[in-house]
Design goal:
The protein folds into two domains: 1-30; 31-248, Aminopeptidase (3-Layer(aba) Sandwich). It is α/β, with parallel strands linked by helices. It is globular and about 45 Å long. The strands form two sheets. An eight-stranded mixed β-sheet has the order 1-2-5-3-6-9-7-8, sandwiched between helices. The chain has helices spanning 2-22, 25-30, 74-84, 101-106, 142-154, 174-177, 179-189, 206-213, 229-243; strands spanning 35-41, 47-54, 61-65, 88-89, 92-96, 158-163, 168-170, 193-194, 217-222, 247-248. The protein is built from nine helices and ten strands. Bound molecules: zinc ion.
Length: 250
Amino acid sequence: MPHPHRRGATVLVGLAAAALITVPTRQAAAGPVLQRQVIGYSVQHRPIVAYHLGNPSLRRVDVVIGQMHGDEHAGVRVVNALIRGGRISGVNLWVIPTMNPDGDAAHTRQNAHHVDLNRNWPVSWTRLTGQYYSGPRPLSEPESRAVRAFLLRVRPHDIVSLHQPLSGVDTTDGGAVDPALRRRLERELGLRAKPFRCHSVCHGGMTRWYTRHHYGVAITVEFGAHPSARYLTRGAPRGIVAALGGRRSG
Ligand SMILES: [Zn+2]
């Protein structure tokens, strides 16, 4: 009675073939990145890179900026985790691990011109010196100009800008205009709502510039000083995608 054996063998071969098709090694190694784009260069000519993830057919685009201040590394780890693994669905997402690669390399808040890139945007800009040096004029820095051009091109509905170490989700700018987004970020990231007012008024800040004058909202998320590796590589990446309405598996 050869029939049952043959049918059994056929089923086994079929399952093995299906498993190979579902998890090809090449795709697993490539991760969820659909596209990598150099959007500009820093003062010291390091590339500023944006990665496209998720579902590109969705009309709504969101952006996550991992790092603006080079001495704040948590957000880079979160964004790198998004780039390196876990299937992302339900969002059309661009992520920028760092918009300050020179500061990241030197572990300085500022860029290589000693400018605080979060005081360099054309909104309530004023001359500031010291650690908050705002540059000679708004958008004086190549890093700010590169990110500005990118944001005006992709027109994100939501921008999440990652910082450290104040631990909270900002209630000003995007957090004031879209409190529902703020609450989702609080819940998914386990952070509290807090007003980040730069000691008094935020001059030349990216989230204010985008939220006041452009298509969507931009919100600041501050991680704590020492988040765990597990939080940065699993909880926070999944939480940010969930807060933006998507899903990240793995
Ligand atoms: Zn910061």
